[in-house]
Amino acid sequence: MARLRDAGHALRFVTNNSTRPRAQLTEELNGIGFDLTEDELQTPARAAARELEGKRVFALVMSGVVPDLEGLELVGEGAEAVLVGGCDETVEPNQVFRYMNLARAFAEIQLGAELYCLHKNRWWQTSRGPLLDAGAFVAGLEYATGLEAVVLGKPSPAYFAAALDALGAEPERTWLVGDDPESDIRGAQLFGMHTALVRTGKFRPDTLDGIDLVPDVVLSSVADLPAWLEKQ
């Protein structure tokens, strides 16, 4: 990251993390060696706060992101919108996504509430290996209600647009670097951005098998990006 900054590149850290507030994520990233400010980190919870400002929201989210939902009226019934967040490694997802909560979300949608999700990831990488993420619960509500959820995080075009607006950048002059072929690479390509897939995080040896997209480059690590860009 330091080499990219020194070379004059503007950076934006765009995550689908929906379990911890932006301030805590920034602190954690700085603690492991990144040098960034809170304003440089873009999270789907903050996107939800902007998109749903002033609405009554039934939120199936981890308690950690509630501080980033400022401006929303969180309710248990009579909602205008249902918002589904992501999962973490604690027991809390068992409480958030229990049957009665999902049934309440279904009922609110039947009564006219719109369906939103912070992201629709199928799984995520943890210290214990891959774990089921919130996409399965979003898909279940879509199946039951016949509605398609509005995705607020990656790969939503609006989410990428917000990142580019913050950078003052054009898509064709911007690189998206990520480990997820669907949320990162496909979404960025459809938005007109260049893409670099890294062999870390969610990447698996068979990741590129059978997918109908080709990133501009596949790198072993984001640490290889500065040198690769200098050669282009």
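the 2nd protein, sequnce then structure:
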Amino acid sequence: MPQKPRSDSRREALREAARKEERKRSRRRLALWIGASAVAVAVAITAVVLLSRPGVPVAEPISAVTFSDQARGHAAGPVDYSVIPPVGGDHAEVGQKCGIYLEPVANENGVHSLEHGAIWVTYDPELPTDQVKVLQDAVRRLPYGLLSPYVGLPAPVVASVWGVQVKVESATDPELANFIAKYADGTKAPEPKGGCSEGVGTPQS
């Protein structure tokens, strides 16, 4: 039987070596993808766990900003708030019922709920669906949680309680978890633990 020319054998060996190297690169890419996915899932789960444990001391939310001396009167109509989303001020006579909303809610009702101890988490309507899901899962577990999209936010996600606010770039930012863990028990509002189970709106949950 005639043997393959040496040049053909060499080309075949080179092709086989190239195939082996490509298989190695594919395995490395798969391993990196799996690793990155696992990290992303772990971060999301950690955020949900932290966000669902109000009152548990985590790290101080160092990026939170305090706005003192907020007015507390009742307004018959729209209010021009200096902070967006608002963290206090004059507000509607009826609060926003706590829960998860898929559409924006009125500032004036939201502020009334803040006065009663609510933590109002707002997000840019363009926030990716997976991040919205993280926020929904977290707020669903809060005793005074209010979640809604908000047009014109200064950051992708903004969380507010009466007189204090934090702006973050994503739903899994540790600063958001720290903020919610510190303030979500409703004790630091002008009317602590006033509750927001009653009011306007029909939340999703």
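The beta strands are 65-66, 99-100, 119-123, 145-149, 157-161, 164-168. DSSP finds four helices and six strands in the chain.
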